[in-house]
Amino acid sequence: MFKKLAVAGGLSVFLASGFALMPAQADLDFRGTISGEPLDFTGEEESPQFKEFKNTGINPYNGNQEALNKGYVIFATACSGCHGHLAEGKLGPALSDDYWTYPTNLEDKGLFETIYGGAAGQMGPQQGLLEPDEILHVMSWVRALQTEPEKAKKAVDTFEHRNG
Ligand code: HEC
């Protein structure tokens, strides 16, 4: 009787600790694009979508028109001054063509690392300026420029319509 309880107790402790550890173990290793230093998310507001992204490296907002619309609002305030109104390039490079200075940006994980942690010169880290969830939104718009240009354009049209 006692023995059985102890076994059951041990098993539940084992399961509980296993589950508690799972998310931490599954998180990918995020590092600055240039520095190679681990990115530190301490103190960040972590949306369920960001938590998912940390595990999968795939932006859950990709292709979601609502998210793209919000992403473009963020782009227009935080990025367009340097990257141009339609990400055609200005002080910073174009994000609308298929050339990447850092080929890691072809993948969502790499794109997040560049935006959150910054790159060279004027491309400062957006850590502390944008929430991780906002970065995922802006990424969904940037990604759509290549993969679903009609959705990216619709987000711009929605923004311009709203802002007269
Ligand atoms: C103050 C100007 C400035 C702002 C604001 C800025 N960027 Fe940049 N960005 C740059 C410059 C300059 C580079 C080139 C840096 C390099 O090559 O290392 C760059 C590079 C990048 C790259 C890498 C491009 C490649 O070819 O690999 C991405 C992605 C990017 N920016 C996205 C963004 C996003 C998204 C925002 C808004 C959240 C943003 N940037 C805000 C100036 C800026």
From TrEMBL:
Domain Cytochrome c: 66-146
Designated name of the protein: Cytochrome c(L), periplasmic
Keyword terms: Heme, Iron, Metal-binding, Signal
SUPFAM superfamilies: Cytochrome c (SSF46626)
Record-linked Pfam families: Cytochrome_CBB3 (PF13442)
Statement: the UniProt record of this protein carries the keyword Heme: yes
Leader sequence segment: 1-26
